[in-house]
Q: What sequence folds into this?
C-alpha cells in the first residue's frame, strides 16, 4: 500500500463551449471560443492511495482526489475544479533498472582512515 500527496499544475490548451441540437432532419452545432474568460493556469493539491502488486517493477492501482485552488473562470470566484481519478500504473523498464542497480559493485570507503 502507498499514499501520495502533493501539488498538481496544468496549462490550458483549448477552451470553447459547444452547443449541439439534434432536431428532426436538422442538426445544429454552435462552437463558441471562450479562451479569454478562462484562466490559463490550473493549480491544486492531490492526495491518494494505492496498492503496488510487486515491490520493484510491479503494476499498481490507485485512487486520487484533486482539489483545484485556482478559479476556472476569471470573473467567477466559485468555479474551482475537483475530480477523482482511478489509475492503473504499468511501469515500463522498471525491472531492468532494478536489476542494473543490483549488479553494480558496492565500493566501501573508510572515513576514519589516517
A:
Amino acid at each position: 500500500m502507498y499514499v501520495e500527496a502533493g501539488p498538481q499544475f496544468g496549462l490550458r490548451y483549448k477552451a470553447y463551449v459547444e452547443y449541439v441540437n439534434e432536431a428532426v432532419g436538422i442538426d445544429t452545432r454552435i462552437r463558441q471560443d471562450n479562451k479569454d474568460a478562462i484562466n490559463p493556469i490550473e493549480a491544486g493539491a492531490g492526495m491518494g492511495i494505492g496498492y503496488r502488486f510487486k515491490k520493484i517493477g510491479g503494476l499498481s492501482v490507485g485512487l486520487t482526489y484533486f482539489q483545484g485552488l485556482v478559479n476556472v473562470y476569471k470573473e467567477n470566484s466559485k468555479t474551482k475544479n475537483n475530480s477523482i481519478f482511478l489509475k492503473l500504473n504499468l511501469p515500463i523498464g522498471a525491472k531492468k533498472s532494478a536489476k542494473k542497480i543490483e549488479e553494480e559493485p558496492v565500493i566501501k570507503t573508510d572515513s576514519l582512515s589516517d
